[in-house]
Task: structure prediction
Amino acid sequence: MGRSTGLVVAAVFSAIVMGLFANSPSAEAGGNCEAKLVDKSYDCSFNDNDFAPFTQCWEFYTGGDSQYFDLDNGVGDYGCACDASGSSKFNHSANTFECSDGVEPYSFNGKIDGKKLSAQGVGADGEQYIGTCKLRSSACF
Result:
């Protein structure tokens, strides 16, 4: 095998190995929204179509109802997942997520932008809220 053939073989092999690593579960888990949110807390301010503006502290954790991650807002616990991408990559999005309350008919979606979150939610009765959250340096509760 000549020198140029050896370099081509090495380059192709390297590309295959890098492609396999980039699509491995451990590589994907580190880049999704769950990795950005779990063990973090946020101070949030909301406007609501049924109530006066309000604030909450949101704390993300694992080990609750969701197979992925959860949110405690001091009022209830929500099961969460990063948005899917494609047709079969569940809990995959790096910046968007959905959460749902297992008791009340309420859900919301959120977007991560650095140390800030934006969120909007809706209840079965049409109640809606929109808000923004800022990363805090300590736990909520």
